[in-house]
Automatic annotation (TrEMBL):
Organism: Kocuria turfanensis
GO MF annotation, one: monoatomic cation transmembrane transporter activity
Domain called RCK N-terminal: residue spans: 6-122
Any single GO BP term: potassium ion transport
Signal peptide feature range: none
Sequence ranges assigned to domain RCK C-terminal in this UniProt record: 138-220
InterPro entries per record: NAD(P)-bd_dom_sf, RCK_C, RCK_C_sf, RCK_N, Trk_Ktr_HKT_K-transport
Protein name (database record): Potassium transporter
Length: 220
């Protein structure tokens, strides 16, 4: 098969989503090729990504010339222009690229991308709405969906689980959740041990069914 160097990512469409993603990938040490039709966008990111090219990615010949297929991962960040998003995704799938990520702006858009065979479809507005609901309600400080109905949260250690070692609290049986990490005030995150005792102002990372982690964070 084709050699796809690890840590190389092509990002097509450098709007708010694509640009933020590309810059974060750069910060994490990836090699990033950015592609966008907009000259202003290209100029703005020039020098901040490994390479930035002004091009219309719906043109198959152009995608080939750019060697997009030789990148480890390809992300389609085009959103508002749904037709362009679908066209670029379908071209990449035609090349047989094994790891295509694409952003969807609506439910039907996501459905079409999934139906086409895009490997990872991201719905930022939808997911951020869900996540924000958990941040707004109660004491959840961070919320990450792991799977349908399953989540990881960061929250203050509820008083009900303070002052006793975690193994004595039997959180799995009593609340259906696991405390996986603890941060004392002013310190860094440490793995939770069976003998870990939580105190006021500690924060915890808790994993489990969404309703149960939410209920855990609401304990008094
Ligand atoms: P966001 O909401 O993340 O800002 P947009 O959908 O508004 O996303 O922006 C997507 C970006 O994709 C824009 O910068 C736009 O210029 C770019 N874009 C749109 N169509 C194409 C295309 N055919 N080829 C390359 N880039 C494109």
């Amino acid at each position: 098969g084709r050699r796809r160097p690890p840590g190389t990512v092509a990002v097509i469409g450098l709007g708010r989503f694509g640009a933020a993603l590309a810059l974060e990938l750069m910060r994490n040490g990836a090699e990033v090729l950015g592609v966008d039709t907009d000259e202003g966008v290209v100029q703005e990111l020039n020098g901040q990504l490994t390479a930035v090219v002004r091009a219309d990615a719906t043109q198959e010949q152009l995608l080939r010339q750019l060697g997009v297929d030789e990148f480890d991962k390809v992300v389609v960040g085009i959103g508002s222009d749904v037709q362009a998003s679908i066209l670029v995704a379908s071209r990449l799938l035609k090349f047989g690229h094994p790891e295509i990520w694409a952003k969807a702006i609506t439910g039907p858009h996501a459905e079409i991308l999934e139906q086409l065979g895009v490997h990872h479809v991201i719905s930022p507005e939808h997911d951020m709405g869900v996540r924000s609901a958990h941040l707004i309600q109660g004491r959840v400080l961070d919320f990450v969906v792991i799977d349908e109905g399953f989540a990881l949260i960061r929250c203050p250690a509820p008083e009900a689980v303070q002052q006793r070692p975690l193994d004595a609290l039997n959180l799995r049986r009593a609340h259906g959740v696991s405390v996986v990490s603890v941060r004392r005030p002013g310190e860094s995150w440490e793995p939770a041990e069976p003998g870990t005792v939580l105190y006021e102002n500690d924060q915890v990372l808790v994993i489990g069914p969404t309703r149960k982690v939410q209920a855990f964070s609401d304990l008094d």
